[in-house]
Design a protein that fits this description.
Layout: H1 11-16, E1 51-58, H2 64-79, E2 83-90, H3 92-105, E3 111-115, H4 119-124, H5 142-146, E4 149-150, E5 153-154, E6 157-162, E7 165-169, H6 170-173, H7 186-197, H8 220-229, E8 235-236, E9 241-242, H9 247-261, H10 272-277, E10 283-286, H11 288-297, E11 305-308, E12 318-319, E13 321-327, H12 334-344, H13 347-357, E14 360-361, H14 379-385, E15 388-389, H15 397-412, H16 418-432
Parallel strand pairs: 1-2, 1-3, 12-15
Antiparallel strand pairs: 3-13, 4-5, 6-13, 6-14, 7-10, 7-11, 8-9
Helix pairs in contact: 2-13, 8-9, 9-16, 15-16
Length: 436
């Protein structure tokens, strides 16, 4: 049984929020000798947590994530009788503005869940404490830990993870002569997509397209790993220059654009998840919530779909998304906050949270706790999380991502060429810059 529910980490929602003015905190009166990239790690005292602790969580208060957090908070209070944990729910659609406004005004809670692609922006605002040395990067999937870092300093701890894998309808792929999963390399996977497409309207009368790829808004989520899979990147952190003019980017654009050019993916902006459920698509690249929704809405299809890691280019790679836990610079009770973070990210507790919510745990050992690691449809996610990477840790990332989305949409509709997109992205990204 596929465990994630409809409340699985909202990677698309988290990363898609438009970045507001990120540098409002410049005049908050903090010393120029401290700040992003210069902070010493916070220290956590020995002994039990005490005092009042306020945490912001995201989403509706009645949804499983917030209910699960409150249950864990009660357990934390039982272990620490002199602490009181208050968890306030913040709607996702207003969370970014609420967080940046609170940081700018010095009016923050003690800690909060933070969308992974917001971390660099808010760390640049000098909003977070540096992560204590007691938290080890090796305890988490590398890409997830990477989402917490800004200028080589960690400013939070990974909590929930998300990444995309390939879903495939076994009832449709089998009619294309594919036994088991489609091929796990670019060339073989494209060959299999063409075989699946050849059955559209014939062996598979309802099916329209071999696969589904996002176009336009947030399409960068699905395209960027293609660059990494070719051993390249779009940004060089050492030189602080964009590298959209690299051969790896060219290959990633040709691969992405070719799928649309050959008619193997739709461009009509219909609901890809629903189309997959309805048998209109043979395969689909999506995150864990897709499987949760499939099981919830169409349990009769449980035996007709499976998952696999993304096909490899010269190497395996995927995108790290999800949410992190961050303690604010202006926290009233930072010691209790970090102790609560330690408690929440303990593998057993995080596994319990994952089972209750359907979200993917960012701690490696959580996958061997509970039932998560026993689900065959979840194996692809665990495999993928081992090779994920975080987007560039720059404060202008959302602007760059928006430019990628715009150019990819033109490419998918055949209004431009891969070479033209590559040139445009290098120019646009260089003009946007890297921010603070």
């Amino acid at each position: 049984m596929f465990t994630p529910s409809r409340y699985t980490t909202r990677a698309v929602q988290v990363v898609g929020v438009t970045v507001t003015a990120a540098l409002l905190a410049t005049g908050c009166g903090r010393s120029e000798d401290s700040g992003p990239g210069k902070d010493a790690p916070a220290k956590v005292s020995s002994g039990k947590a005490t005092g009042k602790l306020v945490m912001w969580s995201m989403g509706d208060p009645d949804q499983p994530p917030n209910k699960a957090l409150k249950n864990l908070a009660k357990e934390f209070e039982q272990q620490n009788p002199d602490v009181q944990v208050q968890i306030n729910a913040v709607p996702w659609d207003g969370a970014h503005e609420k967080l940046t406004t609170a940081i700018a005004g010095g009016n923050t809670p003690d800690l909060s869940l933070v969308g992974t692609t917001w971390m660099a922006e808010m760390a640049a605002m000098n909003g977070f404490q540096a992560t204590p040395a007691s938290f080890k990067a090796s305890a988490f999937f590398p890409g997830q830990w990477g989402t917490t870092t800004y200028k080589d300093t960690a400013y939070g701890v990974p909590f929930t993870a998300d990444t995309s894998v390939i879903y495939y309808r076994t009832d449709l792929t089998e009619k294309a002569g594919i036994k088991g999963a489609p091929a796990d390399d670019w060339a073989g996977y494209l060959k299999d997509l063409k075989a699946i497409q050849a059955t559209a309207g014939q062996q598979n009368p309802k099916m329209r397209n071999a696969t589904g790829l996002l176009t336009g808004f947030n399409s960068w989520l699905f395209w960027l790993p293609l660059v990494w899979q070719q051993g390249g990147d779009i940004y060089d952190a050492e030189t602080k220059k964009f590298t959209f003019d690299s051969p790896a980017v060219a290959k990633a654009l040709e691969y992405y654009g070719g799928i649309f050019k050959d008619g193997m993916a739709p461009t009509d902006k219909t609901d890809l998840n629903q189309n997959f459920q309805d048998g209109l698509l043979g395969t689909l690249q999506q995150g864990a919530s897709t499987g949760g929704n499939l099981h919830l809405n169409a349990p009769e299809l449980d035996s007709k779909w499976q998952t696999m890691p993304l096909p490899q280019g010269t190497q395996a790679a995927g995108l790290a998304a999800g949410s992190d836990l961050a303690v604010f610079k202006e926290a009233d009770n930072p010691d209790a906050a970090w102790k609560f973070v330690q408690f929440l990210t303990d593998p057993k507790n995080l596994a319990s949270y994952a089972e209750a919510t359907g979200e993917l745990p960012a701690a490696v050992k959580s996958w061997s706790e509970g039932k998560l690691g026993q689900d065959p449809k979840m194996a692809a996610f665990e495999t993928q999380l081992k090779v994920t990477k975080a987007p560039p840790s720059i404060t202008t990332w959302q602007q760059v991502a928006d430019a990628i989305d715009s150019e990819l949409e033109k490419l998918s509709f055949g209004k431009t060429t891969a070479a033209q997109v590559q040139k445009a992205l290098q120019s646009k990204a260089t003009s946007i810059g890297t921010g603070r």
